[in-house]
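A reminder from the course coordinator: this example appears on the midterm review sheet, so study it carefully.

Given structure:
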């Protein structure tokens, strides 16, 4: 019963976001870059909208990028306020040390490259790490904008280029596509919650670290 209600609510939400168009991408971007990500949701909605209104694909790409920036900055700001302790409570010691080393070595590109990669590659750990390590706000926003901007402009362009085929697919398989998207979102939430509960049970560990180099 609960799953049925949750699915109906998620379906209604996705339909509502699609009808909103560009603003819907911003709202979804904020959610997708939070601590409970929605894998693949931004890509699908960007393609969907760009295929339906092919002349507006740059607009949808820009709105998706803005949504990702807003969501990413919220996560970054919360982690920055919590400091390194927030990062060390959420992730294992080995993962924390890897994130520290990546920021020390690559700086700017530590956020840009993950922002370019498609799901299921996790983006949230890098957003949290950037904030927890007090990484420069301007550099963080610049790196995230570069990575997400390139990704969403490519996705939106492909959406408009193959608009007829994509629109035909969604009109024919509307419900399966929508439920697949919802399933991925629910799975992402369950996995994030399970990881959160697992890390809460672990004792806090404080690996020897240093602040990331400015790059």
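Designed residues:
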């Amino acid at each position: 019963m609960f799953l049925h209600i949750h699915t109906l609510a998620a379906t209604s939400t996705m339909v509502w976001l699609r009808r909103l168009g560009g603003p819907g991408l911003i709202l979804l971007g904020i959610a997708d870059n939070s601590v409970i990500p929605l894998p693949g949701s931004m890509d699908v909605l960007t393609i969907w909208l760009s295929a339906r209104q092919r002349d507006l694909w740059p607009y949808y790409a820009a709105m998706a990028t803005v949504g990702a920036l807003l969501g990413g900055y919220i996560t970054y700001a919360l982690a920055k306020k919590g400091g390194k302790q927030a990062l060390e409570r959420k992730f294992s010691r080995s993962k924390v040390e890897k994130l520290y080393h990546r920021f020390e070595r690559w700086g700017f590109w530590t956020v840009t490259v993950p922002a370019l990669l498609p799901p299921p590659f996790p983006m949230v750990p890098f957003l949290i790490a950037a904030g927890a390590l007090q990484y420069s706000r301007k550099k963080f926003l610049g790196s995230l904008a570069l990575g997400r901007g390139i990704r969403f402009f490519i996705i939106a362009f492909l959406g408009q280029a193959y608009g007829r085929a994509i629109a035909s697919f969604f009109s024919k398989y509307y419900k399966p596509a929508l439920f697949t998207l919802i399933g991925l979102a629910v799975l992402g939430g369950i996995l994030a919650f399970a990881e959160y509960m697992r890390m809460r049970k672990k004792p806090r560990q404080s690996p020897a670290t240093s602040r990331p180099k400015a790059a």
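The radius of gyration is 18 Å. The chain has eleven helices and no strands.
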